[in-house]
Amino acid sequence: MHVFVTGASGWIGSHTVDDLLAAGHDVTGLARSDASAAALEAKGVTVVRGDLDDLAVLARGAADAEGVLHLANKHDWSDQAATNATERAAVETLATALVGTDRPFVVASGVAALAPGRPAEEHDPSPFTGVDSPRGGSENRAFDFVDQGVRSIAARFSPTTHGVGDHGFVAYLVGVALERGVSGYVGDGSNRWAAVHVTDAARMVRLGLEQAPAGSRLHAVAEQGIPTRDIAAAIGDALGIPVTSVEPADAAAHFGFIGGFFAAEMSASSTATQELLGWEPTGPTLLEDIAAGAYAHVAAR
Predict the structure, then answer these.
(1) Which residues form the NAD-dependent epimerase/dehydratase domain (predicted)?
(2) Is-contact 286 222, C-beta < 8 A?
(3) Which one-letter DSSP state was computed for residue 257?
(4) Scanning 68, 122, 126, 219, which has its CA 20 to 30 A from the CA of 268?
(5) What is the pLDDT of residue 152?
(6) Where in the chain is the domain with CATH 3.40.50.720?
């Protein structure tokens, strides 16, 4: 299959591209920079230069492909309105190019806020609709195109997709711990985060592209829920610093933008995904990765 991938040089995207190539697929990747383009070309990926605001480029990339993986996102926490608007426009453009083809269109999403009080499951619909919602309501917007002959699929990722070199939420928490001299958690730290190793997530995305029917919601989740106090303790042990509770009222001041996320319940199940795709996570756990030094690069900055 010829697959067009946005975010092809990103954390999840780069591992997914490796998995796609190993499975024999041809890949065209969107690249913003010379460095990203060179890294993709070195793997044998055909490069298209541009970013998520280049809608004509996105449309051509999707129209020329047999499947599309949309894994890019601006992640500009200082201007969420613009990030959400860009995400929605990108999804609409990519999906429109696939109308009437029955080709797969996998859209990255998350497990947050799907099922307050319990682990999110694949049957839980996303509550986010409209351009002003998180990610511009892109999951539901992609599903709007199912009746127009697009095999839209939501790939919902754990709040931490971890591994050596990860620069996501856990890397940010490590950075905060280094800056503060303590590894913190919010309140009693009983709220839980789902987790998955990046290579397992990449394989799930590829299997979803190949197999999942239209309207599928897939969960890239290996561990259903790790108490955040255990994550903080693992970070503290790895850095050799104390572990402490942070009052909920002080979370934003202590952690910055991630305070609200680290205080939230973001557990999820992947039972239905595993059964549908025959996918079984095999990578190390989050706590094993932290203990093994997967985040040593943060301290070396």
Answers:
(1) 3-124
(2) no
(3) G
(4) 68
(5) 98
(6) 2-159+196-221
The CATH classification number of 2-159+196-221 equals: 3.40.50.720
The token pair that represents 198 in the structure block: 């990046």
The set of residues, in sequence order, having a beta carbon less than 8 Å from that of 240 and lying 6+ positions away, is none
Q: 271 Cβ partners below 8 Å, 6+ apart?
A: 121
Torsion of the alpha carbons at 215, 216, 219 and 220, rounded to the nearest 10:
-100
Please write the tens of the pLDDT for every residue from 211-225.
999 999 999 999 999
Q: pLDDT > 70: what percent of the chain? A: 99
Query: Assign residue 41 a region: left if phi > 0, alpha if psi is -120 to 50, beta otherwise?
Result: alpha
Q: Angle at Cα 56 formed by Cα 54 and Cα 61, nearest 5°? A: 95
Q: In what helix (H) or strand (E) does residue 298 lie, and over which residues does it extend?
A: helix 296-299
210 residue type, one letter: E
CATH class of domain segment(s) 163-195+224-299: alpha beta
**Mean local confidence (pLDDT), 123-135:** 91
Residues of the chain with CATH 3.90.25.10: 163-195+224-299
